[in-house]
Amino acid sequence: MTAQDQVSVVRRSEGDLSAEDGTAALLTAYHLRTEAEKGRAVADADGLPDRYRAEISDPRTAFAGDVVLLALSGSTPVGCLVVTAPADGRSEIKRLWTDPAFRGRGIASDLLRAALAHAAESDAGTVRLSVWKWRTGAVALYERFGFTVTESWDDRDQLVCMERAV
Cα 144 vs. chain centroid, distance in angstroms? Predict the structure, then answer.
């Protein structure tokens, strides 16, 4: 394995985030893929719903109070994950994404481990997440990390809600 093959996970808080640090490109890919999987493919970020465009154009504001974890191959961002600030003793994991060219290298697992460690440091007792039912690989990954399906807090069809103790 060369130095370029090694991936590190770094934390970015709102003060460290910008649309130019690679976060925006990863979030764009995530949202474009998700919309396509939902049958609502759009050509570019301009066609995404307002709330997703806001994350892409201004991650500092969109994730104020949260932590964004970036997986870097050298200095190139190849994965991301958002951990929300604890509320009522629970944090939420959102936007787990790995660049398709870097999949199969354990990056998503590294991001999840870092997210759970951060949640523990933040005194969250529970971590929850939601995932689309058709993302069976992601569901299996979450299950390997001890997440279990729980009652839904979101009424969107085909969205699976999961949680685990920290």
Answer: 17
Residues 118 and 133: their CA atoms lie apart, in Å, by 26
Residue entry with tokens 């992601």? 138
Whether the CB-CB separation of 93 and 111 falls below 8 Å is answered with no
Report residue 36 CA to chain centroid gap: 18
pLDDT in tens, 70-115: 999 988 999 999 999 999 999 999 999 999 999 999 999 999 999 9
Identify the H or E element spanning 4. Answer: none
Residue type, 55: E
Q: Report residue 149 as tokens.
A: 């399906």
The neighbouring-strand residues paired with 130 are: 161
Quote the longest CA-to-CA distance of the chain: 45
Its pTM stands at 0.90
Q: Which helix (H) or strand (E) holds 163?
A: strand 159-165
| Helix H or strand E encompassing 29 | helix 23-37
39: left (phi over 0), alpha (psi -120 to 50) or beta: left
| Whole-Å CA distances, 91 to 47, 87, 120, 138 | 29, 6, 10, 19
Q: Pick from 160, 121, 163: which is nearest to 146 by CA?
A: 163
Give the Cα separation of 72 and 4 in Å (integer). Answer: 9
